Amino acid sequence: MSIQEFMIPLLAAAVIAGTPILFAALGELITERAGIINLGVEGIMLMGAVTGFMAAVTTSNPWIGLLAAMFAGGALALVHAFLTITLRANQVVTGLALTIFGTGFSGYLGKAYVGIPVPKAFVPTPLGPLADIPFIGPIFFQHDVLVYISYVLVFVIWYFLQHTSPGLNLRALGENPAAMDALGINVFRLRYIYVVIGGMLGGVGGAYLSLAYAPSWLENMTAGRGWIAVALVIFALWNPWRAIMGAYLFGGIDALGFRLQVLGLHSVSPFFLKMLPYLFTVLILVLVVALKKGRLATPGALGLPYDREER
Amino acid sequence: MVKKIEHLEMVGITKRFPGVLSNNNVNIQIKTGEVLAILGENGAGKTTLMNILYGLYKPDAGKILLNGKQVSINSPKEAIALGIGMVHQHFMLVPTLTVCENVILGLSKSFIVDIKTATQRIREITDTYGLAINPDAYVWQLSVGEQQRVEIIKALYRGANLLILDEPTAVLTPQESKELIQLLRNMSAQGNSIIIISHKLHEVMSLSDRVTVLRDGEVCADVCTRETSQDALAQLMVGREMAPCQREGTFSPGKAVLELQEVYSQGDKGTEALTGVSLTIREGEILGIAGVSGNGQKELAEVIAGLRKLSKGKISLNGKESTKMSPANIIEQGLGYIPEDRLRVGTIPSFSIWENLILKDHHQRPFAKHLLLQNRVIMSHSSSLVEKYGIKTPTLETPTSSLSGGNIQRVILAREITRSPVALVAAYPTRGLDIGATEYLHSKLLEARSNGIGVLLISEDLEELMSLCDNIAVLYEGRVMKVIPVEEANERVLGLLMAGIAEQAS
Q1: Residue B221 lies in a domain
Q2: How far is A239 from chain B (nearest CA, A)?
Q3: Residues of chain A neighbouring B113 (CB-CB closer than 8 A)
Q4: Tell me, what's the pLDDT at B506?
Q5: Which residue has the higher pLDDT, A155 or B398?
Q6: In terms of CA atoms, which chain B residue is nearest residue A176?
Q7: A204 vs chain B: nearest CA distance in angstroms?
Q8: Average pLDDT over residues A226-250
Q9: SS3 at position B430
């Protein structure tokens, strides 16, 4: 097998494998920029996957499935928002509880759907002339619609943050909510909105797995991708462009493990290869914490509940 | 266009917090072009009152009249819409954004951010009032004085013509304070009204046209600045005659309790912060360290307390060499430490009062027997300290972070002095404290001195140093310029040494 014959499918697979993580990471990026850390991403992704699957099977329409997933993700995030913003509960604890709940509840809901094929899934649709560009084409433009949506989403989020007024406010919200409050901005309402948006995107990430990647439903099918998404936000230093690069990097490592097995590299334990993405995650996190650049990029008020009278 | 504020009145304002009556039937008024100072000790209710005016708090009773009409201000947004702007003591800026971005924050004039127009408008404002700020600079790059100017620009950009400034010179150097005073004069000349919250008498005297004095939540005086004096205001503020502390008794120091020999140490920026410091502090002596902040004072205190490593040199505490000792060991050997950052380094902010009072000895008798804390002993010890040192707190369980600066300092003093240290290092102990708290701290330092403790006092306030110390050492670029006995010290001599100019034979 030539290098090209190996690399192109690998990179294409990296994009597909990275897309669910990308959606969830973009959602979490928005939430964290607002100053709230939501560790319920794994649970939200699973709830998105199962509700999306159930709705798509019932209506034979994957788009309805996608909508249902967004709704489920948003609803779960709303619970997190209420607990952490209004009741000022500890964000880490609430997020973890949400993950545990999402994991369990999705398994329960999906029991009847295991093994059932989805009538219509998101299938690869080559993007016309773009798909014919040598090398770039097969890697980026021969995938399903959701992947293309993810490209646009990265750009939209970047533009929103850097060039719009509400985006500027969002950047400040996670750094210094007291400043925003003193300017008369409703910190609580904005945080609710961004947490729910983050949850909706997490739901989409989960739905991508059950409606495009697999496509099927299996209990716990995210296999920790939600956690990788959380790590990815930190790795990306809360920047959408770095997030997409990181997502494909993680996706690539994921896909690489599988491919190395296929190539017959039996000397490398398959378990080690499966472990690679998570190992990589830990290394990245350690690096970001150790380097000053990481600490500068972290939203200053991340994880801290905002209490007006406690000023 | 925001309406001009000709006349603003707050009538009968009352505000209660759990356990505390912050404002009790307070009346104030201000006219256009006037500078009003609200003077009072920490805890007198000044900031609460202004927070009500700015819409951050709702009063329990009373009303606000703007140009004769009653208004209700329920949020900062409404206050801004009425033309009221506030510059807080702790800046509300986002360090990772530029000046321009910080100024336009929260304004939704257009969906797409138009940096060019905003920058131009900012330049118009800075030109009108003579503020020198680069709109494209990142806030974390600016000095404290410059950051304060950004806050002022923020308020002006939004059309404020009544500006509230909360303790404006608390964080400024003397030079920056002068610039601010000039700026405020420009602004009031342009027809803006200004309210200054302060506890600094000389600032109030030089800035304001009128002064309203608050004490314990009530207005106790409302005078024209021209018709009063610093002493009169001090008395009104505190409610009694002020007796500045003076050293008493003959100075008869004992043996050396703290000695530094040719101490070198690296600072945080990679340069040598201490370049060969040699000092001796004796029993019953107060040695002052004068110098502009940033010449090694912070590192000096840390090196003595064992919080920073020496690269060269020796330190002896109570006769034993402490150069390589751990901070715990140094504490045990008898060092008391009142750090510069009193809340975060001197206490554990989320701990209760009693927990902070027994820190450093919490693992020993009588506070602990074997592994168990002895609650009865601890509580009676804590309540007697609270009484003895006048710590104002609702209960012993209150988290220390909710105490005022002066009270936090009392907690630290109580703990450190009761341990009977042989040497006490106090770094900028009266920074940010009002007159009453400062007077108290001075009296305690002098008491320590008469009890035979050797005190090292690091301070920026030359008056404080000259009234308390027996000898004053001037620190410049990490080394001691000279140690002079206080009889020979005056502002000129110290000023020259602080600037690095070795004294000429006069």
Answers
A1: yes
A2: 14
A3: 163-165, 167-168
A4: 38
A5: A155
A6: B94
A7: 27
A8: 92
A9: coil
Q: What is the C-alpha separation between B22 and B41, in angstroms, rounded?
A: 12
CA atoms lying within 13 Å on the CB side of residue A260: 17
Contacts of B77 in chain A (CB under 8 A): 183-185
Residues 332-391 of B with CB under 8 A from A: none
Count of structural domains, chain B: 3
Question: Taking CB atoms and an 8 Å cutoff, what residues of chain B touch A183?
Answer: 76-77, 80, 92, 105-106, 154
pLDDT at position B35: 93
In three-state form (DSSP H/G/I as H, E/B as E, the rest C), the secondary structure along B173-202 is CHHHHHHHHHHHHHHHHCCCEEEEEECCHH
My answer on whether omega of the bond before B366 falls inside 30° of 0, hence cis, is yes
Domain range for B269: 247-334+421-506
pLDDT, tens digit (0-9, with 9 covering 90-100), for A258-301: 777 777 666 677 777 778 778 887 887 788 778 766 677 788 88
Question: Regarding predicted confidence, which is higher, B199 or B173?
Answer: B199
Q: Report the residue count for chain B.
A: 506
Residue with tokens 């505190």: B238
For B251-262, letters b (16+ CB in 10 Å) and e give: bebeebbbbbbe
Going along chain A from its start, the domains and CATH numbers come out as 3-128+136-310 (1.10.3470)
Of B79, B88, B105, which is closest to A169 when you measure between CB atoms?
Answer: B105
Give the gap in angstroms from C-alpha B78 to the nearest C-alpha of chain A: 8
B211 pLDDT higher than 80: yes
pLDDT at residue A27 in the model: 97
Does B341 map to a domain?
no
Nearest residue of B to residue A298, measured between CA atoms: B96
Q: Which is it for the CA torsion B121, B123, B128, B133, positive or negative?
A: positive
The residue length of chain A stands at 311
Give domain status of residue B217, yes or no. Answer: yes
Residue B103 lies in a domain: yes
Query: Ranked by mean pLDDT, which of A201-210, B125-134, B457-466, B480-489 comes out on top?
Result: A201-210
Residues of chain B contacting A156 with CB distance shorter than 8 Å: none
pLDDT digits (tens, 9 = 90+) for A185-226: 889 999 999 999 999 999 999 999 999 998 899 999 998 999
- Contact criterion met (CB < 8 Å) for A163 and B97: no
Q: Which residues of A touch B110 (CB under 8 A)?
A: 165
CATH number, domain at B144? 3.40.50.300
Q: Are residues B231 and B251 in the same domain?
A: no
- Residue B483 three-state SS: strand
Whether residue B496 is found in the same domain as residue B429: yes
Q: Are residues B232 and B256 in the same domain?
A: no
